[in-house]
Write a structure and sequence with these properties.
217 residues; Rossmann fold; two-stranded antiparallel sheet; 7 helices; 36% helix; globular; binds guanosine-5'-triphosphate; binds magnesium ion
Length: 217
């Protein structure tokens, strides 16, 4: 969905329960569309779509300013506290077809907490789910979104130092998605400049993939 001065970007949030998916959706949209809270069980049990207003100041096309609307699909976590893998998968599949069936998905984020190391046991099932949802070209349409960037800062680590010390599993994942990642602080609410930086990175990932979208039936 795109005119000369306006563009709609469709994003999907996937990740384990309580990783900060809904909070990240709110941060990206600059709203409180999604219910986000600390809970001993999974909070989000069905998919929902949030839309930002038309945002400017971070994307240009042919020399002109682009007004970009983000559409973000929040999903139940996987593994989930009460839903099976099949239920989560079916819920996301249906929502992808309903919301992005016509226009297509630009980018899916695998949401990871930066304050937890990524282990192999978590990686395999998640990659499998992403592959099943996005198909064989999933790597072109997937990036990592680290939440809890405030905790990384609190530990006095730069994002480079953090990644330098990360597990081999995380390195492998980042390699497979061609180092597409962003850090997000959902706690303190990011400063305007930090948010613009994250949005510019998202646009760059999408540009690298030639603005292609994944279509769903
Ligand atoms: N400090 C900090 N807390 C965060 C951040 N992101 C999320 N949280 C907290 O983590 C908890 C879970 O956040 P949610 O947004 O509900 O996570 P979710 O992945 O949507 O959770 P489910 O829907 O249960 O799968 C909440 O208490 C958030 O405030 C972050 O960047 N920093
Ligand atoms: Mg949630």
């Amino acid at each position: 969905m795109s005119t000369d001065s306006k563009m709609t970007i469709n994003l999907l949030l996937l990740g384990r329960t309580q990783s900060g998916k809904s909070a990240a959706g709110n941060t990206l949209l600059g709203s409180m569309d999604f219910n986000s809270c600390l809970s001993p069980c999974s909070v989000t049990t069905s998919c929902s779509l949030g839309r930002s207003c038309h945002l400017s100041g971070f994307a240009r096309r042919q020399g002109g300013e682009l007004a970009v609307q983000l559409r973000v699909l929040d999903t139940p976590g996987y593994p989930h506290g009460s839903l099976s893998k099949e239920q989560v998968q079916q819920e996301v599949k249906t929502a992808l077809a309903q919301h992005f069936g016509g226009t297509g998905l630009h980018l899916a984020f695998w949401v990871l907490r930066a304050d937890f190391p990524l282990c192999k046991q978590e990686e395999d099932p998640m990659i499998q789910l992403v592959q099943e949802l996005l198909g064989p070209n999933w790597k072109n349409y997937t990036a990592v979104l680290f939440t809890h960037a405030d905790q990384v800062e609190k530990a006095r680590l730069s994002s480079e130092q953090y990644l330098h010390n990360a597990t081999d599993t995380l390195h492998k994942v980042l390699q497979s998605v061609e180092q597409k990642y962003i850090f997000v602080d959902n706690h303190a609410r990011m400063l305007k400049q930090e948010k613009l930086k994250a949005l510019r990175k998202i646009m760059e990932f999408i540009r690298q993939n030639h603005y292609q979208t994944l279509l769903f039936k």
